[in-house]
Amino acid sequence: MAQLAAFFSVVNVLLLVGLIWIYGNSFWKVRAQFTAGLLFFAALFLIQNLMSLYSFLTMFMDYAAGISQMVLAITIVQTAGLAIILWTGLR
Fold this sequence. Notes:
Number of strands: 0
Radius of gyration: 15 Å
Low-confidence stretches: none
Structural class: mainly alpha
Strand content: under 5%
Number of helices: 3
Largest sheet: none
Distance between the termini: 34 Å
């Protein structure tokens, strides 16, 4: 379970790096406050996912069996949402 959660967390980090790249390019061209907000949001979300990845790799074995399944489900749903946002940003 910990390996799966860590895998999806790494995927989330990569998706967020892609979003930061897209939002950064957009902000460089437009300089809009909304784009700056998206860039800031993605950066904070990246920090959160890096912290989650660290906890999955170092403390996941301490989670109870019931909560580890919920954490994995949340991480997978987050991956799907970020993939959709990245796909939309690339269009």
